[in-house]
Specification:
CATH architecture of the largest domain: Up-down Bundle
CATH superfamily of the largest domain: Fumarate reductase/succinate dehydrogenase flavoprotein-like, C-terminal domain
Helix content: 25-40%
Structural class: alpha+beta
Largest sheet: 4 strands, antiparallel
Number of strands: 8
Shape: globular
């Protein structure tokens, strides 16, 4: 749902949207992580594909369009080895303030490490760049922030049970595991650990249980809703791909790396408008191999999730981790989570709850952060 993404194009927040429609609570939806170094490939959907953080960890330099190592302005001690959120936001700011590269990014340069070293230690990254005509081993390559991971999602207990009996969730569809700023490598670890737990929990749950009864009328109502765009003529219908593009721009500009209360309110209103207009879209043909229909389904789920992100971001009047409010740039002394529930309400029900510190409490003294390496 963002203009620039690191993930697969078919990853469209379906799980979160389905859970919310079923009446489940979500938490931490404002916490969306942007990776600092997504490859910029003009006029290509590959824009946003990751160049790994190990490049910066090994001594890679980030330069703006003027050739300045701009991280000196944002974190002079750690420079390019600062945290993901700070480096991504710094790159975004450089572009926003007119110091970006020709294609709206910054440069990453590892050539000073030596071509042999780069070729040997970063084979995959060198190949990825060469596939698009860039030579990472011998010169700078354009990169920029890219939407990478959602820390928020469906509320579950430690065994992956949700509020709804018989419905389980794990992985990036859930919230609460990563706090405000996921560490590199923990995405795969979460899916592996909680995927296994979910499997064991579900296997135990179904033992000796009868098949659940399905409401035929509810199923027919759902089928009518999702099949509605099929078979119609585009004619005077809404432009599906125009709405999709507008949602991506809107989220990037107002619900992305730098947010404000005014921008979030604008986004919320326009997301509602996009959702209403999407009801008038048409997808000619039947359901088989109908990409337009699939994209319509994706847009519905993306607008549902976008609404949750924007509303949660408006509720959190502070900056913390991946969530940055230009109108509230400091972190609050209070630790809390933002929750949202929709159910059948016309507007989302949003509230906060204090963080329960059951093992460790944050202290004033924190160890120096090192560059993150991983997913």
């Amino acid at each position: 749902m963002y203009r620039v993404v690191a993930c697969s194009a078919d990853k469209s927040s379906d799980g979160i949207a389905l859970g919310v429609r079923a009446g489940l609570r979500v938490r931490d939806m404002e916490m969306v992580q942007f990776h600092p170094t997504g490859l910029i490939v003009p006029n290509s959907l590959m824009t946003g594909a990751l160049l790994e953080e190990g490049l910066r960890g090994a001594g890679g330099r980030l330069l703006n369009g003027r050739g300045e190592r701009f991280m000196e302005r944002y974190d002079p001690a750690r420079m390019e080895r600062s945290t993901r959120d700070l480096v991504a936001r710094a790159s975004f700011t450089e572009v926003l303030e007119g110091r970006g590269t020709p294609n709206g990014g910054v440069w990453i340069d590892v050539a000073h490490l030596g071509a042999d070293t780069v070729e040997r230690h970063f084979k995959g990254m060198v190949k990825r760049c060469r596939d698009f005509g860039f030579d990472l081993a011998h010169g700078p390559v354009e990169v920029g922030p890219t939407a990478h991971f959602m820390m928020g999602g469906i509320v579950t207990d430690p065994t992956c049970r949700t509020d709804l009996e018989g419905l389980f969730a794990a992985g990036e569809d859930t919230g609460g595991v990563h706090g405000a700023n996921r560490l590199g490598g923990n995405g795969v670890a979460e899916s592996t650990v909680f995927g296994g737990i979910a499997g064991d929990t579900m296997a135990d749950w179904v033992v000796s249980r009868p098949l659940p009864r399905v409401s035929r009328s509810a199923m027919e109502g759902t089928a009518r809703r999702i099949l509605a765009p099929l078979g119609g003529s585009p004619g005077a219908a809404e432009d599906l791909y125009g709405l999709q593009s507008r949602l991506r721009d809107l989220m990037w500009e107002h619900v992305g790396l730098i947010r404000t209360g005014a921008g979030l309110k604008t986004a919320i209103a326009e997301i509602e408008e996009i959702s209403r207009r999407a009801e008038r879209c048409r997808a000619p043909g039947g359901p088989a191999y109908n990409l337009a229909w699939q994209d319509w389904l994706n847009l519905n789920n993306q607008t549902a999730t976008a609404r949750l992100i924007a509303r949660s971001a408006l509720e959190r009047a502070e900056s913390r981790g991946s969530h940055f409010r230009a109108d509230f740039p400091q972190s609050s002394a209070e630790l809390y989570n933002v929750y949202v529930a929709v159910a059948d309400a016309p507007t989302p029900n949003v509230w906060t709850e204090p963080v329960r510190l059951t093992r460790l409490a944050p202290s004033a003294a924190r160890p120096a952060a090192t560059v993150e390496v991983g997913d």
